[in-house]
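ok, trying the design again with the full structure, not the truncated one.
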C-alpha cells in the first residue's frame, strides 16, 4: 500500500490509531493525516488546536521515517474522508472506532459511514 489516509482528531483513540498505523505500514508509504471539523463545533481557536494536534501526530510519523502530509477540512467527516480518499487515489483509510458504548455492537457514526461508502479498503481501530 503506497498511499494511506489516517483520520486524526486528538483523542486517545485517534492517537492509538496513528501508532498502530505507523507499526503496520511500509516506511516507503506516503501518509496523509486528515481532520474534518464539523460546522457543529463552535469552539474558539479550533483550527489552531487542531493544527497543534496534527503537527504532533505528523512528527510521530516523521520520527519513524515516514513521509507525511496534513489536511484540515470543514464539513461532514465521512463524506469529506470518502471524497478526499477517492479524489486522491488512496489505497487505504485508517480510522478510530468512536462508537457510542450504548450501541456497542455498532461502529461509530463516521467510521461506519466510511466503511460503507469508501471505494478504498478501510481499517477501523478499536
Amino acid at each position: 500500500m503506497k498511499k494511506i489516509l489516517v483520520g486524526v482528531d486528538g483523542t486517545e483513540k485517534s492517537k492509538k490509531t496513528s501508532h498502530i498505523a505507523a507499526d503496520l505500514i511500509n516506511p516507503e508509504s506516503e501518509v496523509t493525516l486528515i481532520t474534518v471539523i464539523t460546522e457543529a463545533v463552535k469552539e474558539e481557536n479550533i483550527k489552531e488546536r487542531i493544527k497543534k494536534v496534527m503537527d504532533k501526530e505528523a512528527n510521530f510519523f516523521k520520527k519513524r521515517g515516514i513521509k507525511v502530509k496534513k489536511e484540515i477540512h470543514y464539513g461532514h467527516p465521512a463524506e469529506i474522508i470518502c471524497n478526499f480518499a477517492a479524489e486522491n487515489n488512496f489505497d487505504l483509510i485508517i480510522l478510530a472506532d468512536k462508537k457510542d458504548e450504548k450501541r456497542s455492537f455498532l461502529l461509530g457514526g463516521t467510521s461506519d459511514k466510511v466503511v460503507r461508502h469508501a471505494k478504498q479498503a478501510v481499517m477501523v481501530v478499536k
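Keeping the full-length input from now on. The domain at 3-125 is CATH 3.40.50.620 (Rossmann fold).
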